[in-house]
Structures are given as C-alpha cells and as structure tokens.
Amino acid sequence: MRLKRFAFRLHRRAPSWMACTFLCLASLGVHGSTAAAEEELRLKTERFDTDPGWDNSVNRVELANPPTIAQDFGWSPGKIGGTVHRSITPAWYGMPLEKPLSFHDAFSASGKIAVNSKTSDFRTAVYLGFFNHERQGWRPWASMALRVVNGGRRTFFFVDYMTGLWNAGAAETELTIPSDGSEHTWSFTYDPKATREPWSDFKLHSWLSRSRQTPTAILERARKDEPDLTPQALEERLQTALAKGLVSFLARRGERYWLLNKDQAELKGAVTFQVDGGPPYCAYLEATLQAAPVVLDRFGIFNMQLPGGAVTFYASDLTVNEKKIDLGSDPGWESHGSRVQFVDRDFVRQNFGYSADTSHAGGQKGEIGGLFYNVEPVNPLHGFYADEVGQLTLDDPLHFSGKISFMEGSTDAGMFFGFFRAEDEKRTLPPNIPGTGGSGWPQPNVLGMVVDGPSRVGWFFTSVCTAAERSLMGETRGHVFLPTRRPRTFQFDYDPTANGGVGRVTVALDAEAPFTLDLTAAQRQAGATFDHFGLMSFRRGGKYSILYFDDLTYTTRHPANDPALRHEQKVTTVPHPQ
Prior knowledge:
The structure is a single chain. β15 (267-275) and β16 form a beta hairpin. The N and C termini lie far apart (60 Å). Helices cover 13% and strands 44% of the residues. It folds into two domains: 43-63 and 347-574, Jelly Rolls (Sandwich), CATH 2.60.120.200; 68-195 and 287-343, Sandwich (Jelly Rolls), CATH 2.60.120. The model is unreliable at 1-38 (pLDDT under 50). It is mainly beta. It is built from nine helices and 35 strands.
C-alpha cells in the first residue's frame, strides 16, 4: 500500500515513463527484503522557507584572523598601476573603448611595464589588457589580457582569454623580466584573420603528442631517428615551433613540458606577444571562439579574482589600438574597487548551506547553496550540507528534482549534489592514491549530478554514479551548463529495473532533451550505499563556484519531520593560511 501511495505521488510529479516504473512495481507485488525496503520509500519536499537543520560538515569555514587589504591602484603621474591584491572581490581600473570589441576585431596595446618584488608577495598576479567591466572572475569572462605573474626574482607572462560563453584558454610563455622595478617594453597584438602555417619539421612533429612530455622524454624518442641530436639542437627546434604556434609550453613544479597544438584547420586568430623587442611568442585560438559572443568594453587593469597576495606594478608609455594614451594628467578612466580598504574573509574555503535571505534559485527568500571550492585531497577543508535519508542502495528507485541557479563559475571548479555516504566524504585521504591521478574524486558511493567541465567548454551538467569500489565510476556529460545566474529546473531519476535490470539514470534540465547514464554490470554487482542527500564540495584541486538550490523533492526512508534529524550549523574556524 505504501509503495502504491508513493507511486501515485510520483505520478503527479514525474514524467509518465518514470511513474509507470513505480506503478508496475506496485502492481506486481515485489517480494522479500527488497519489497520491505521499497515500502518505506517516500518523497520529501523541502521549500527552505525556514532552516531545515540539515547535517553539515566543514561547509562553513571562517578565518580566525582575516586580513585587512588595501586595493590601491589607478592613475599616478605618467603611469597607471599600484598595489593590486588578489581577491574574489572584483577590482578594476579601465579606459572605456570607443566601441566594444569582439574576437572578430583586431586590437593591440604596447608600452612599458615594471614589477617591484620588494613590495609584492611571492606568486601573485594582476591582469593588464582588454576586458568586460561587468564581470571578470577566474579566468576573466569576456577578456583577452596579459596575466602578469610575480615569481619572486622574476615576473612571468601568460596570455588569458575567454568568451562570453566561458570558453577559456591560456598561452603560457617563457618570456620574463626581472622583478626589480626596472622598466621593460612589451607589445600585444591580436589578429583575427591569422592562420597558422603548416608543419615542415615532420620529425619533430612525430616525436611530440597532445600529452605533456619533458625535453628528456622527447630527446629519448628523437634519438631513435637522429642518434646524434643534442639537447641544445632539440631546444632550438622546439623554440622555432613555439614561435610559429605549433606547440605549447608548460612549466609545472620545476619541470618543463611540451605538447602539440591543435591541427591548423581548427585554428583562427592569433595573439602575438613580445618583451623588450625579443623573439615574438604567438598563440593561435580555436576557430570556434570567434562564433561566441564577446564584448570587450574596457582596457586597463583588473585583479586576479582568486585569494592571494599583492603585487606592485606600473604600466606607462601606453599605446592602445594604435592611439597614444596621454598619462601626463589624470585621464579620468573608470574604476571599481581599486582604491578601497576592507577585511577580506575569503581564501580557499567552503561557505555553503542554508541561506535565509537569498532567492536566486526559487524566487522567494530561503534556499541552500553558496561558495564551493575544489580542494586537494589532503586538504581537510572539504565538506557537505545534506539531509539524512536513511539507507538507500542501487536496488532502490531514486529521485530528486528542484531548481538551481549557477551564479559564478571559475575555470577548474565544480561541485556535486545528489545521494552520497557521509562516511566517505569525512574520510581523510592519503596523497597520491594509485589510479586517481592524485585526486580525491571520484569518491565511492555517490549517485547524482556534477557541475564541472573543461575550460574550452565551461561546465557540463553531468550525471555520475560511483559504486562502493571507487574505480567503478560512470558518468554522462549532458548539456552545457553556464553561470548565467538565471533559475533553472532539473529532474534526476534512477530506475534499477531499466537497462536490462542493471539500472539507468535519466536526467532532464529545463525543457532540453533528457539524457541517460546506463550503469555497468560491474557497478551494479559492487553496489553502493547512500545515507545523505544534498550538496558536497570536490576533493580535487581547482578554483571556486557559487550555486544555489531551492524547492527540492527527493527520495528518503526517514519519516517526515523526524526531530532527531535536525542539526545546528557548525562553523569551522581556521587561521589564515600562509
């Protein structure tokens, strides 16, 4: 009887295909322990009009000694710049452009730059270039700019770009200047019509791949064809290919890596960057980026919107789009947060849970969500905020639905929502777990949705199931899902009888076509156990995202309004990390 009532309630809320599954189970009369368990299932709806008192672990993290920072940059006689702090609080100083630019337009800038490490923190950064003043973030939304990175004794340069659809990319260079306050010339040019010349050094092409390789590994392969090839000669050939945009260079943890760039046909538009009149560095963009909306309406300085330290730098003798900029007197550029002092409470932390005063997802005050950070597996500041739902397994039909609003997203950031086992989330993970690439994700016993994706796309709305054995993970990347700040609806259904009795997940986002995830026989045999439903941060290094949820309906085995399930929100207080 309870199962029939459950199916009837589900029939009123869910698509016919899913409701029919439950009605058929009810009419057939399921036997044994599975039947007894299913008869306890019910749907619970939470509107978040009041604090639901959900279980929580390291989801609200605060600093015991938050620092006071002073953004202090803008114009000074003959130059722009000053002290720029990294912070997720936006700060910028920019010249309005005569007309907005896109990646269909040619644009350029040049001048002199000086970075002073004596007044800077190690490994800090600031942006100089073209951007949209309404949003920045990490990486900067709708922008093409130099990332000026102070590494202590020397300053490094990157070229970062992103469309208005959050398709991001970056070119990492080996061009540097000393961080001693001395002036150096630079130039930056974007040509939307540029196409890359084809390969002529076919042997070098055959030694490389789209995966990262050290010079030592490349040389080992190369000497099978050219036994007398020296490291110096290989380096010269790599540098020639780099200048032509045929390869990319990456520096990671004291090692240098090289990899092939995309095929010529997939590229259009190029950024050329020079320092002190030296060899030009050229990076080609993917051709598809020109079709994406881009509105660059300012040129100037904006902060790297990640927690961190401060860098002191100045730019002078500026020419923008072939027009000399007079900095002898105050040019009257616009600014936002560039001359302010405030207590900065944000660092790599979690800050999500019940929110009484926001209405991003549901339209009325009261919802859950907030700030989610990807953290390394060994970092203890990972957490969850979730309702206790009793013991559920992959033998149970499971459902959740509701509203979601993706407010802010940073490249290399994501989060999970759905069913999971709290014990796995709380467990301390050792570093370098075999077969995980050093990641704490996936973790075992999860069934739900992930908001995550590669920088070239942005984010996907991805269904995921990981069995009790964490290597048995399956996922289906669904629709592209971007931080547009608008409320959207979703529905997730797991049917253990579908897919030949192995199990199938079906997900719908708004009115877009549903997509499915079929479990494997190995996953189903290994099984999974879930005891919580809610929100969870990623245990994998990266950045931050901000999402909110409302009007959730989900499967549970607990009786309604069980007072034993209410919890007080706990706050984790930590010292400011050095």
